[in-house]
Amino acid sequence: KMTNSIKEPYLLTPGPLTTSHATKAAMLRDWGSWDDDFNQVTADVRTQLLAMAEAASGEYACVPMQGSGTFAVESALACATDPNDKVLVLMNGAYGKRAAQLLHMMGRRYVTLDKGDYLPPQPNEVAVLLEQYPEITSVFLVHCETSSGILNPLEAIAEVVHTHGKTLIVDAMSSFGGVPISLAKTPIDVLVSSANKCIEGVPGFGFVIIRKALLEAGKGRAHSLSLDLYAQWEYMERTGQWRFTPPTHTVVAFQTALAQHREEGGVRGRCARYTRNRDALVKGMRAIGFGTLLEDGWLSPIITTFLSPNDPAFEFNAFYAALKSRGFLIYPGKLTEVESFRIGCIGQLDAAVMETLLVAMQDALSEMGVFLSSHSRSA
Ligand SMILES: *Cc1c(COP(=O)(O)O)cnc(C)c1O
Asked: Which residue in 278, 332, 361, 373 is a FRET match for 55, CA 20 to 30 A apart?
């Protein structure tokens, strides 16, 4: 059989993810990047994102940036910090590490609180560091650290950072739109996310929701021409256009994805579906005999890390291929200490898809000759 006669697989990954037919269909038209019709789409998307974040439009601006999510994080860090600042980077996985690497490359001073692979940074630890190093000006936190799937305690840390009068920069890439975040209730100065995560668009741009005062202070700070967030904002405000060629099809698909997000009941509706996905997944996986890396209280509704079984017949690449042939793409682990793999709960998936995944999983395991012990089954 030709491969293109097979139905496309479900992406159980944290983005790019499985998108709806309507979102894909929205890309079947070409747009002039300078034309009013497209400028209106950009303006509408920016307004809707501010509303989703419950960010007052007088205080905050939403600035989209071409590229993957990391491009937006880089442009946000370059704009919101300067060489005299000192940033406290809270790390418990790959994305916290990446932020430190970005700060290093742009010549910013920083200190880190490294909790290893999956332990959460705690608000009291942040308070101790802010008192110990009064020269710290800003704190960087990853909300859902996608490398393990942990949902870090954003609200409590934001409170500590605010009490100490520091700036809080949040990588909410994999949580925004799928987990409630309110800038009206939680003191966050900069929030970064992208098109292809919980809003279920296709890849091509990220966006930064940032206090206007910080944007203005960021004039002339950027280390990069194309990733100059202030210049992007200033140009967009003045002309309605993106400063360089925008990913037009992606932006229009994103507007369609936003309409579906609203129809589903906004962030709360989406969070409820992702939570049902996660619960069906975790329950079924534990029944098969897989253990989760994290205790229940830290599991996000975004992605879950499962520990690879000790059985010598279990091998990730073979498991991946067996699931792929059954229509599911899973995600490798990103831990340094233990063997693991990850299953995403976001995208156009529901609990029924998770149930078919669980059946495929059992099928794949018996094909591989993996028999999980009743001991782990009872875990
Ligand atoms: C996806 C993601 C990013 C951005 O990764 P890109 O590959 O650049 O899109 C950043 N932070 C987190 C937490 C993510 O999940």
From this structure: 278
Contact 106, 77 (CB under 8 A): yes
DSSP string, 243-309: SS---HHHHHHHHHHHHHHHHTTHHHHHHHHHHHHHHHHHHHHHHHTPPBSS-GGGB-SSEEEEEPP
Is the minimum distance from the CB of 171 to ligand 1 under 6 angstroms? yes
Mutate to test the pocket of ligand 1, among 194, 208, 304 (most ligand atoms within 8 A of CB): 194
The pLDDT of residue 378 is 38
- pTM, two decimals, is 0.96
Given ligand 1 and candidates 17, 66, 75, 95, which is best to mutate, with the most ligand atoms within 8 Å of its CB?
Answer: 95
What does R_g of the chain's alpha carbons equal in angstroms?
A: 21
How many CB atoms are located within 10 Å of the residue 104 CB?
A: 12
Q: Is the CB of 15 under 6 A from ligand 1?
A: yes
Q: Which position has the token pair 């860090």?
A: 77
Q: Is the peptide bond before 16 cis (omega within 30 degrees of 0)?
A: yes
d(CA 118, CA 148): 6
- Residue 45 token pair: 């998307």
- Ligand 1 centre and the CA of 148: distance in Å? 13
pLDDT score recorded for residue 1: 36
- Torsion over CA: 297, 341, 175, 156 (sign): positive
Q: What are phi and psi of 367, to 5 degrees?
A: -60, -40
Per the structure block, which two tokens stand in for 344? 């995403």
pLDDT for the residue 337: 82
Residue 321 Cα to ligand 1 midpoint, Å, equals 25
Give the position, in ligand 1's atom list, of the atom nearest the Cα of 142.
Answer: 13
Q: For residue 3, what pLDDT is reported?
A: 41
Q: Give dist(CA 142, CA 337) in Å, integer.
A: 21
Output the furthest CA–CA distance in the chain (Å, rounded). 65
What's at 330, amino acid-wise?
I
Query: For residue range 257-275, what is the model confidence (pLDDT) as tens digits?
Result: 999 999 999 999 999 999 9
Q: Give the chain's residues under pLDDT 70.
A: 1-6, 374-379
pLDDT in tens, 61-76: 999 999 999 999 999 9
Tokens representing 235 are: 């140009």
